[in-house]
Structures are given as structure tokens and as C-alpha cells.
């Protein structure tokens, strides 16, 4: 958890959707690309529980400032609280740190 509005995680699964709803999460930002091994598209399942799913892939190298700026812009505009996730949580943590240091 970054703050009261932003959570970070590794890959989420269908069996964790109730926990996401119980936290009051209104938006989920998926940083994974569909080509990644183990990609699981939960957009439909999230919409069924009233949570918006935003797919905004972020490359592993995260070298382009414009890529991070794009994700932060999406995070700024989405409904809160928001959960940001990737495969193991590294990219999500980087977004969380960038959000905490540039948006506070």
C-alpha cells in the first residue's frame, strides 16, 4: 500500500477479486502486456464487481520517462482507491514510488 488511495501488487487472480472489492478498490491498472507469460485478463470479472480495469502496459526496462509519465497520468485520473499490478510487483512498486514522490 502506497497510501489510502493506491495499492500495489503482483499478478492478481480471480480468487482475489473479493478481497479487492472488500478493500473498496474502484480501479485496477494492469501494467502487464498480453504477450507476457502468465498474463491473465480479468477485465470482465472486475467489471462484474463494479471495478474499472485499465490496461496500460509498462515495459520491464522502464527506461522511458514518457512511459512512466503515461502511467502516472492514468493513475492521477482513475477512480480511487486504485490497485496497480504487474507480474511480480516490481513495476507496480516503481509506479507507487514515483506516485508517492511526485504527486504528494
Automatic annotation (TrEMBL):
<protein>
    <recommendedName>
        <fullName>Rhodanese domain-containing protein</fullName>
    </recommendedName>
</protein>
<dbReference type="InterPro" id="IPR029021">
    <property type="entry name" value="Prot-tyrosine_phosphatase-like"/>
</dbReference>
